[in-house]
Amino acid sequence: MGSLPRSLGKSVDALMTDERQIISAIKMGDKNAFEMLYRTHFTGLATFAARYTLSWEEAEEIVQDIFIRLWIERSSLIEDIRSIKSYLYRAVRNAALNRVRHITTITRIHTSSSFSTSAAARPNEEEPADVKLEIEEVRENVKHELSNLPERQRAAIVLRYEHEMTYVDIGRALDISDVAARKLIRKAEERLKASLQQ
Amino acid sequence: MSLTRLSYYYGTSSGSPFMTSDNLSPPGLDPEREFVDQVRQVLESQLPKGKPANIEKSVAMLHAKIATLEGADRRVFEADEGAEVLKLGVYKRPSATRRLSDLWMWAATAVTTAVVLFGAVSMWRSSDISWNTDVRDYTTAAGQRTQIRLPDNTLVELNVASQLRVPNDFGERDRRVYLNGEARFVVIADGRRPFIVETETATVEDLATVFNVRAYSQSGGTSVAVTEGRVSVAARLSAWDDRAVVDANEVAVVTEDGATQVDRMLDSMQHIGWTREVLQFTDTPLNKVLAELSRWYGVDFKIRDDELAHNRVTMTVRGTILTSRHISEFAEAIDARIIQEDNSFVVVRLRR
After folding, report:
1. d(Cα B335, Cα A119) in Å, to the nearest integer?
2. Cβ distance B21 to A192 under 8 Å?
3. Hey, are the CB atoms on B1 and A164 less than 8 Å from each other?
4. Phi/psi of residue B303, each to 5°?
5. Confidence class for position A92, pLDDT limits 50, 70, 90
6. CB-based contact B317 A134, cutoff 8 Å
7. In angstroms, rounded to a whole number, what is the distance separating the alpha carbons of residues B95 and B73?
8. Cβ atoms of residues A138 and A130 within 8 Å
9. I want to staple A168 with a disulfide (CB 3.0 to 4.6 A). Which of A178, A187, B50, B265 is the partner?
10. Under 8 Å CB-to-CB from B25, ≥6 apart: which residues?
11. Among B316, B317, B306, which residue's Cα sits nearest to residue B348?
12. Is residue B185 a contact partner of residue B138, using CB atoms and an 8 Å limit?
């Protein structure tokens, strides 16, 4: 750790005590600390959950359920939860997976009208297909490849690219080691990059 | 999110296949950065339409939910009285298991909540229930749903036309409730006191988990879908030793004659969709769909055409409020006409 710049080392320390303080405050029943934690993470967690649910309302519900549970069971919180952030993302992923095992099913349900026959399920038609530039095609490839990634690889990519998490935190969130997390992401990146080549 | 920071992460992975494909990116752009950009754009495009909720609103909602929970049993109950939940008083266990089916049939023809409440109360009074304080009942009519927080903090979401009975000694030795209809349970862990749901056909026991029990007395049998943890299910007709263990993402079905079968849950929305206001039918006979919809909306759907009644329907319903637009969409979806007759909707063939 000697190579770590002094200031960075300090801020990491500060962060750790910060998190520990927040947890012990919540344990003591401090609702402000609890609300602060919610405010800090709500948008990120909801965005992550929405990857699974395909509706914002449902995503928000998942996040709220987790916080409600956290509050109700606050006395059993462990103070050395290494990183609250990865703990929360892990909870969101588990809850989301439990709720929707089959994303394809959900896509079918996700229509604007109240009633829909299964045949009426529409494919994603966000972009007009008229002028398809090469770059556009590349994007389609990435899109296709990204949705075909195994759920764990996809989750890792989302956490890395969208939520800017470290390998260590991604590992914690996905219940794997940081080395495994790094490998997982590398693998996914290779697949995505290969799709760019086609 | 800054791209610079991201390219710091990814720019170091040299030798990637992308590095050689400079032709894909405009001149002067770092290909790694371009890649990161691509992925980010695609990720963004794959989010649902709309926006996440406003944070202030969301915080307020969180506090409101917690306040309701912390008010515990009593407060939820009082708040709901006269509104969503019908409080039908307290009475002894053995009676009235069959009453509910009558209740919802009656309710299905009623037009407003107020009428439902009235009718229900008078019906209970006329029946042979002995009133005492052994149990407490939570009942929903057709078209009504509610949430109940039990004294041990277990959350129960009660679906339409259902009844949950909670003995007053709940939690003393075990945590036992009686269900006719459908409910989802989010059980708080307690190693000493198992949580038990009794239905007409089965006994479901668990320690800490989330599961859905469906046991409408008029449709026969009990279906238990577990989304977290593990429960055990025993048919009433069999010995307790014969119980089946149901893990997360499995469904157990107990038929009326006591046969139990455990299968993988292929589609969780089929079982817990109702808690998200989604009702899903897969290859279901139309008459069954109509019975379900009657309960769901608290409206009476009828069908007299036998052949039409056995048509199979695959369909998804979202939301709990029925409007005339929904009726016409529904008619279109099942390829039939729906006409209104007094207080019910009758499904008939299309005119050729």
Report:
1. 13
2. no
3. yes
4. -145, 130
5. very high
6. no
7. 24
8. no
9. A178
10. B31, B34
11. B306
12. no
Nearest to A23 by CA among A61, A65, A71: A71
Residues in Cβ contact with A50 at an 8 Å cutoff, skipping those fewer than 6 apart: A56, A58, A59, B47, B48, B52
Average pLDDT over residues B18-31: 44
CB atoms within 10 A of CB A176: 16
ipTM comes to 0.71
* CB-CB contact of B254 with B202 (8 Å): yes
Is B95 in contact with A97 (CB distance < 8 Å)? no
Say if residues B215 and B179 touch (Cβ distance below 8 Å): yes
Residues in chain A: 198
- The shortest CB-CB distance from A42 to any of B58, B314, B316 is to B58
- The minimum CA-CA distance between A152 and chain B, rounded to whole Å, is 15
Please tell me the distance in Å from A72's CA to the nearest CA on chain B: 8
Q: Do B301 and B293 touch, CB atoms closer than 8 A?
A: yes
The strand ranges marked E within B272-348 are 278-285, 300-303, 312-318, 337-341, 344-348
pLDDT per residue over A114-134, tens digit each?
Answer: 344 433 333 444 444 444 456
Note the pTM of the prediction, 2 decimals: 0.41
**Most A-contacting residue of B39, B187, B322 (CB-CB within 10 A), to test interface:** B39
Which one of A115, A137, A144, A182 makes the best mutation probe of the B interface by having the most chain B beta carbons within 10 Å? A115
Please calculate the CA angle B134-B224-B93 and round it to the nearest 5 degrees. Answer: 15
Give the integer Cα–Cα distance in Å for B171 and B192.
10
The Cα–Cα gap between B19 and A193 comes to: 9
| Residue in B with minimal Cα distance to A112 | B318
Residues A136-154 as b/e (b if ≥16 CB within 10 A, e otherwise) read: eebbebbbebbeebeebbb
The token pair at B55 is: 């944070």
Cβ of A143 within 8 Å of Cβ of B46? The answer is: yes
Q: What is the DSSP letter of B240?
A: G
Q: How many C-beta neighbours within 10 Å does residue B131 have?
A: 11
Of the segments A136-150, B36-50, B207-221, which one has the largest average pLDDT value?
B36-50
Q: Kindly report which listed range (A42-51, B14-23, B256-265) carries the lowest average pLDDT score.
A: B14-23
Measured in residues, chain B has a length of 352
How far, CA to CA in Å, does A78 sit from each of A140, A173, B276, B332?
44, 16, 32, 55
The Cα–Cα gap between B16 and B136 comes to 66
Confidence (pLDDT) at A185? 93
Asked if A139 has any chain B CB less than 8 Å from its own CB, the reply is yes
Distance CA B282, CA B279 (A): 10
